[in-house]
Structure prediction request, 101 residues.
Amino acid sequence: MANADVDAKREYRTALLKLNARAWGIAVGLLFGLGLFIATIVLIAEGGLDVGSHLALIGKLLPGYRVTVAGAFIGFAYMFVIGYAIGRVIGTVYNFLARGD
Prediction:
């Protein structure tokens, strides 16, 4: 009976510690995507002579991204995919380490 209690506690602990890697991927993807989207839209709304010259450098890494409304959507898509991959890796590594077998 004591062995069954230990196994039940181990299963309970593992279930509590386990993260949903897909949910982490979606959450981090939305965070990254919305971050770039909002930053782009705010710079466009502010206007000025040189709109978002520093943010435009991201276009070197993300082909098609510009500091425009269309670029905001393109940047969101790129950053969502990148954030999703990072979130999945975080969830998977955490689950591997939390398993502790």
Summary: The chain has a mean pLDDT of 87. The radius of gyration is 21 Å. The chain has one domain: 2-99.
